[in-house]
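JOB MANIFEST
job_type = single_chain_structure
chain_count = 1
residues = 85
[input]
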Amino acid sequence: MSGIINGFLNMARLESGKFELNLQRTELRQLIESTIADFRVLNAGVEIVLEDANAIYIDLDKEKIEHVLVNLMSNAVKYSKRECL
């Protein structure tokens, strides 16, 4: 429930121009790997494979990007056949 409320609050902040990002230099693959590890804790039996990739450093808001990644993985699990993941 708090996630939904925070989502609405973030949309209101975005629309009013008061949406703040906490940008920090982050290695993208490391962020994705840690997010996958956290996701696996709550989704036992789901296998997610991350292919090899070069290190990419970008400025981003880790918390918001982690939220996006979790939503993507949740949708992949929800709408894909088990053998496709």
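[summary]
The first strand starts at residue 23 and ends at 27.
Residues 42 and 55 are 27 Å apart (CA to CA).
exit_status = 0
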